[in-house]
Amino acid sequence: MKTCLAVAFVALIVAAAEWTVAAQNPQQAPQPLKTEKIKDDLYVITGDGGNTTAYVTDEGVILVDDKNDRNHDDLIAAVKSLSEIPVRYVINTHAHGDHTGGNQKLSGAVIVGQVNERADMIKGKLAGAPSVTYNDQMTIFLGGKEVDLRYFGRCHTDGDTFVYFPADKVIVTGDCFNTGNGRGLNPTGSTTPGFYADYTINGSVLSWPATVDAALRLDWDIVIPGHGPPSNRAAFLKWRRDVDAVIDRVRTMARAGKTKTDIEQVLVREFGWETTGMPIRSLDAVMVELK
Ligand SMILES: [Zn+2]
Question: Average pLDDT of 28-50?
């Protein structure tokens, strides 16, 4: 029983580590990666860490996020199977180590992030912080193709980049939209898995709706989340309504003086949240912000 509890506790720590700024667990073995074609020149690589998007051009590959450090060799093998031309740019959607852990070993590429994201990585003592930053918007042109980086405000952190591929009508959201938990899974079938603001780097549940509404004003059909399977605009709109429902419910209960336990039970029962997941474990901070 004691061993069982210890194992469960370690598993919890590992799961939690994927979602925080200092996330790295060198002991954990890398999970196998899987590549899925989204468009002729756009792929998503899943299986471990945050989702990686690979955009192939005649002059090199642009990656969005590069998983954990432990995934580096497998990630490079997956990208090489798409193109022999090297990775030229890596865009970080946010600072967490399961999205930026490959930065240091990809030093031949230009690492790009929002200005707050770079500061978050430095604050978290993470290696490979971006060498190029932007404030609100920047565009990368490579091999006759265009990639737009947009900062719409706080959501999962204070430095989340949305990456837009106008020719393919695809958007990549980082962890401002997830269809799975930190492991990319959705064991409870929740419509809002991974709705988690990291308050240690100024994430904000309150700002979240306005931030994602700005992303909705762009013209896209397919959305690649930070974790979990790719999705579409209709599912994103459904998720967006459920985000409002979660916020309204938590705010109403917090203002009525309900306890954290009361609110936890509602989130588990009505919204299918995992009892040990990071979203529910950040509830203290969420209640303070929404009250
Ligand atoms: Zn994250």
Answer: 97
**CATH number of the structural domain spanning residue 171:** 3.60.15.10
Decide if 271 is inside a domain: no
CA 256 / ligand 1 centre spacing (Å): 31
Per the domain annotation, does 152 fall within a domain?
Answer: yes
SS3 per-residue string spanning the chain: CHHHHHHHHHHHHHHHHCCCCCCCCCCCCCCCCEEEEEECCEEEEECCCCCEEEEEECCEEEEECCCCHHHHHHHHHHHHCCCCCCEEEEECCCCCHHHHCCCHHHCCCEEEEEHHHHHHHHHCCCCCCCCEEECCEEEEEECCEEEEEECCCCCCCCCCCEEEECCCCEEEEECCCCCCCCCCCCCCCCCCCCCCCCHHHCCCCCCHHHHHHHHHCCCCCEEEECCCCCEEHHHHHHHHHHHHHHHHHHHHHHHCCCCHHHHHHHHHHHHCCCCCCHHHHCHHHHHHHHC
CA of 21 to the centre of ligand 1 (A): 8
| Cα–ligand 1 centroid distance for 20 (angstroms) | 7
Q: Compute the distance from residue 114 Cα to the ligand 1 centre, in Å.
A: 14
Instruction: Identify the domain containing residue 72 by its residue range.
Output: 2-242
pLDDT of residue 107: 83
The answer as to whether 172 is a domain residue is yes
Kindly report whether the global pTM for this prediction surpasses the value 0.90.
yes
